[in-house]
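Reopening this one. Same input as before:
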Amino acid sequence: MLRFKRYQNSGCITSSLGAEVTFLNGGKVIVMSSHNLNSSHADYDIVRKMRASNLVLGPLLARTGEAVVSLPGGCAIGARPMDLHIGALEALGLL
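Same output, byte for byte:
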């Protein structure tokens, strides 16, 4: 079930940004349409539960020109530095 929770969190964060999200088969299948994306601010209450919250940075920057995303959360297995991700986005000219 934990594995599916990760996908559900991804669906929830996408939904909070304005995308249409449908969970099927008990949450095991997620159908998303981001045509109506209307926000660049990722909901902190959802992001803090995700170890991979940095994965929404690139798509938000590409789609909206900005991204407001808190630092990764999830379990406390160690540091999750963001400098590599920020450096890559700078190298691409997105920051």
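So the earlier flakiness isn't reproducible anymore. For the record, The first strand starts at residue 20 and ends at 24.
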